[in-house]
Design a protein that fits this description.
Elements (H helix, E strand, L loop, with lengths): L5 E16 L6 E9 L8 E7 L2 H11 L5 E12 L5 E12 L4 H14 L4
Helix pairs in contact: 1-2
């Protein structure tokens, strides 16, 4: 899949929703969320998709920050027409920087990932 239309956004995540795609180029676990960069009237609410391996980190850091997760993401815009004729677009994340995550939270995230993947 061609990855054109590069995007860099910074803001606060809301409404993370985990899911799984069974087929296609983005198959696997994901988290879909809204990234708020500005007031909605100015177009500042963006749908972002965190594919594997970012999905697990978003879920862990969302929990550890009590839902106050700010990030900077780098990714690419993916859009396609919907049955109603309007386009549906989201930013697929390639890289993410967790701005409100402490070193202690990062250590805890490593522990949780190891536990979830069967490591001692």
């Amino acid at each position: 899949m061609k990855r054109q239309n590069g995007v860099i956004l910074s803001g606060r995540l809301t409404e993370p929703r985990p899911g799984t795609v069974q087929s296609g180029p983005l198959r696997g676990r994901y988290v879909l969320a809204t990234l708020i960069t500005d007031h909605v009237a100015y177009g500042g609410h963006h749908t972002v998709l965190f594919p594997e391996p970012h999905a697990a980190d978003v879920e862990i850091f969302w929990t550890l920050t009590g839902g106050r997760l700010e990030v900077t993401i780098e990714g690419w815009l993916r859009s396609q027409p919907q049955p109603n004729g309007l386009p549906a677009a989201c930013v697929v994340v390639d890289r993410v920087i967790y701005l409100t995550v402490t070193e202690e939270m990062r250590i805890e995230a490593v522990r949780r990932r190891a536990r979830d993947h069967g490591a001692p």
